[in-house]
Every structure is written in C-alpha cells, then in structure tokens.
C-alpha cells in the first residue's frame, strides 16, 4: 500500500513545490533510493523567510485559543498517521521500526504538551513604589523562527521546536537534514491538514546546508534560530547570527558519562546501559559515550553487559525483531571503525562485537580496559560501542566524568541516597539520569551546558525560548 505521506516536494507558503535540481535520499540499511527532493537554494530560502515574515503579521494576532486548538489538531493528526510516519523514518534513517513508532509517540508528546502549555504563558503584575503607576508584563512571540534539525530523530527534533513556536505565535522556516527530509515534509502535510495557515510553517529541502544555514542565521527578518547538531556547526551559526543579535537556542554535541558505583544494582545498571547506549545504534546526542565502572565490580559488570549486548539483533529496521540498525552513512561507519581501532591500539580488549558488517552496519561492541587517552574518551563516537573505563574512588569518577568540554547528559547508578545527591550536584551536565538510562520527557527541560548548548527544549522553559517579555508601564 502506497504511503500517502511520502511526498517528493518541498513546502513553502502552503504549497508543495518541485524543481529540476533534486537530490537523492537513500535508505542506509539497503542503500536503495527512497526518493528525490528539490535541492533548494539560498534564494529559495530568502523567499520562504519573506513568506514567513508576511504570515507572522496575521498569525501573531490569532488568539491563543485558536493557536493551541490548531496544534492540538496536529497532535491528533500525527497520532492518526503514526504507522505511516514511522515507516518513513525507518526508510530514511534506518532505525528499527519499533524505535520509529516510539519516536512518533515521543515526538508527539511535545505537540500535546505545548498545545496545553501555550495557554499558560503568563505575564505578571508588578507592585509599584509610586502612586499613579501600574506596572505589568506580557509575553509575545519573537517572530520568524529558523529551525535546523538533524537526521537522527527526524520527527522529535522538529516537533519540540515547532510546537512551542506555533503556540507562541511565531512562524517557522525549517531546514531538515538532507539525509532524512521526508519526515519533515510529511509533518508539513499534517500541519496543513490541521489548519496551520499558509506561510506559517515552511520546509526547505536542500543539500546546500552551509548556504541555507548562513541565510537563516544572517537574514534580518529571522528573529530567532534554533539548531540541533554538532558543536562546530553551532559555533558557526552563532557567529553568523551575532550580526543581527538573534535569539539562539542550540542543542549541540555530547560526550555522556555513565558511572556505575560499587553500591549499584548491577543488573539494573546493565539494563540502563543498553537503553542509554543502543537506541538508534548509539546515534543520539544523549547516548552514553564513556562507561566508568568502579574497580571492585568492573569484571562482573563487563561480563553481564557483554552478554546482553551479544544478544542484540542487528539488521534492516523494517525486519521483525531488529534492535540495532545501520550507521547513517559511510562517514558514520568510518568514525566508529576509527575509534575502535584506536582503542585496540592503546590496549583495549574486545569482549563482544568489534567488526563492521556488510553495508553500513557495525556489530554492537563492548570494549574493556580502554585507555583514558583513547579517541573514544574525548570524541563523541555516535555508534554502537560501549567503552569501559575503570575507576577507584568517587572523586576520581567525578573528575573523569567532568573532564570534557561537553555537558549535555550524564548517567550514574548507586543505591546510596547521599551519594546520589552528591554526584547529581557536582557532575557538570545539563541533564542527569540517576539509576535510569532514559531521561527525556516533554514536561522536563532538555538541554546542555558548556559546549553542549544554550537554552532548553520541552517544559515551560522550552516555551519561553520563543517568547519575548514586554514590560508595560501605565501612568496616572
């Protein structure tokens, strides 16, 4: 049965458009063509920005009741088309279908959350120290929002940006990753069906990522840019956005530690490690990158983890029972191979896995005795590799965990409540999972510190990212 949401067009001003210049989208599991999309230029991006700016004039005047009702209808439309969206995600990203189905629920939870939270963007009344003055604040949408999203979560990385933007009264120009643009186009179709007016939500498909990014970051009509991706690209966008003093919110690179103390429940720690490491074949920004295990339990944890990892089923995400899909492309595969080879060169041992498989696949792998100067200790691997390091004391674990310019997510396992408080307060990370490997929820703030980003997504803080505070002073 044909998937009616798989649309080979871009979306500007309420219209699906085509061009002679196109680019291919390939399934990383099979290397077969998924489809072709318009390869839009910076000039096309300028047009989309102008359209969004024009649409903002009326959208910002739309009542909050009407805006949140439209976003609620988008939530319902996504729910109704869950299977179709999941199949598109699996085709273009390679992730297992069960994960794609889970991502639809996860991504849509942000749409539902902000459809409600948008009604609570409260201002305040401020006591005046002088008679005859009335002081208050209101919150208003920032204006045109540029959103740039990555390939690893083709739906969720979009919904947690556009849902708060829409209810805040902003209009959007979205540039999805060229590896996974079909999910974004499907979302645009559902948004139109839900009643989002023409020009309010626009999707630019293109392989000209740097040119489109520069246009979005420098165009004076754009009031805010939100980006999820690498720290290097985030630095470039931030510098480009500085000339027009844009609002920015960036979710950037990570290097998440996972600490297992000797008072932890080891079986639960192994379960959390699997959840925190192998979702999307380890290609998530909050994926565990460094496992620090206390020396007295190191061997038993390593043995149990290797056993669990060896049972994971690898393959095409459309096949039944597959738990680990491919790397997104050959470059992703080469980085994983480089990190494993470097770790082995520096004395690491393979407990399970360790080899690439045909195509873009790599075996789920556990490496023990990894040296602290290995590449995998300082660089984000973005692959299905567990690198195990040994530590002796709590102080050493904290020092090692914090020895990175990144600070997005961190995890640790301990049954000592006092230690839990100490570590949670001292670890340098925007998010901390305590005795769990899954941390992201629509009602909780998602984001990092240090070079892992600026701002938060999800929660009431995620709505504030798209609002300006206006102070009103009434004289007598």
Stretches where pLDDT falls below 50 for ≥5 residues? Answer: none
| CATH class wording of the largest domain | Alpha Beta
- How many extended strands? 22
Helicity level: 25-40%
Please give the radius of gyration in angstroms.
Answer: 23 Å
- Mean residue pLDDT: 97
Query: How many strands, which pairing sense, and closed or not: the largest β-sheet?
Result: 7 strands, mixed
Class based on secondary structure composition and strand pairing: alpha/beta
Give the strand content: 15-25%
End-to-end Cα distance: 68 Å
Number of helices: 15
Q: Write the CATH fold name of the largest domain.
A: Aldehyde Dehydrogenase, Chain A, domain 1
The strand line-up of the biggest sheet is 14-15-16-13-12-18-19
Domain count: the total is 2
What is the CATH architecture assignment of the largest domain?
A: 3-Layer(aba) Sandwich
Q: What is the name of the CATH superfamily of the largest domain?
A: Aldehyde Dehydrogenase, Chain A, domain 1
- So what's the overall shape? globular
Protein name: NAD-dependent succinate-semialdehyde dehydrogenase
InterPro entries: Ald_DH/histidinol_DH (IPR016161), Ald_DH_C (IPR016163), Ald_DH_CS_GLU (IPR029510), Ald_DH_N (IPR016162), Aldehyde_DH_dom (IPR015590), Aldehyde_DH_Superfamily (IPR050740), Succ_semiAld_DH (IPR010102)
GO molecular function: succinate-semialdehyde dehydrogenase (NAD+) activity
Keywords: Oxidoreductase
């Amino acid at each position: 049965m044909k998937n009616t949401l798989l649309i080979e067009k871009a979306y500007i001003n309420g219209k699906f458009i085509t061009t002679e210049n196109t680019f291919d989208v390939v399934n990383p599991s099979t290397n077969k063509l998924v489809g072709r999309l318009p390869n839009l230029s910076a000039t096309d991006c300028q047009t989309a920005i102008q359209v969004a700016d024009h649409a903002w004039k009326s959208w910002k005047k739309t009542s909050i009741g009407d805006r949140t009702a439209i976003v609620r209808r988008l939530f319902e439309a996504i729910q109704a088309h869950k299977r179709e969206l999941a199949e598109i995600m699996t085709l273009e990203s390679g992730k297992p279908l069960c994960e794609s189905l889970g991502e639809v629920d996860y991504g849509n939870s942000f749409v539902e959350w902000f459809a409600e939270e948008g009604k609570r963007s409260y201002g305040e009344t401020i006591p005046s120290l002088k008679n005859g003055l009335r002081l208050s604040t209101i919150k208003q949408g920032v204006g045109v929002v540029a959103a740039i999203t990555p390939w690893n979560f083709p739906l969720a990385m979009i919904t947690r940006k556009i849902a708060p933007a829409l209810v805040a009264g902003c209009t959007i120009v979205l540039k999805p990753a060229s590896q996974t643009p079909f999910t974004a186009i499907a979302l645009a179709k559902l948004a139109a069906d839900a009643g989002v007016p023409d020009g309010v939500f626009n999707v630019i498909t293109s392989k000209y990522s740097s040119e489109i990014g520069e246009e979005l970051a420098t165009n004076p009509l754009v009031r805010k840019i939100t980006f999820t991706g690498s720290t290097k690209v985030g630095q470039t966008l931030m510098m480009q956005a500085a000339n027009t003093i844009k609002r920015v919110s960036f979710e950037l690179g990570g290097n998440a530690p996972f600490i297992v103390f000797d008072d932890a429940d080891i079986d639960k720690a192994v379960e959390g490690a699997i959840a925190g490491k192998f979702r999307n074949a380890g290609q998530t920004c909050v994926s565990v990158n460094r496992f620090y295990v206390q020396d007295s339990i190191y061997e038993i944890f390593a043995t149990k983890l290797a056993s669990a990892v060896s049972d994971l089923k690898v393959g095409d995400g459309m096949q039944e029972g597959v738990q680990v899909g491919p790397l997104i492309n050959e470059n992703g595969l080469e980085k994983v191979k480089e990190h494993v080879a470097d770790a082995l060169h520096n004395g690491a041992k393979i407990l399970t896995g360790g080899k690439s498989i045909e195509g873009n696949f790599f075996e789920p792998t556990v490496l023990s005795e990894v040296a602290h100067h290995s590449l995998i200790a300082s660089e984000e691997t973005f692959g299905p590799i567990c690198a195990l390091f040994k530590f002796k004391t709590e102080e050493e674990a904290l020092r090692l965990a914090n020895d990175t310019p990144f600070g997005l997510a961190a995890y640790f396992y301990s049954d000592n409540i006092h230690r839990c408080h100490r570590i949670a307060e001292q670890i340098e990370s925007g998010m901390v999972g305590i005795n769990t490997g899954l941390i992201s929820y629509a009602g909780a703030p998602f984001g990092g510190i240090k070079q892992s980003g600026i701002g938060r997504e999800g929660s009431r803080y995620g709505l504030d990212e798209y609002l300006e505070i206006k102070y009103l002073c009434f004289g007598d």
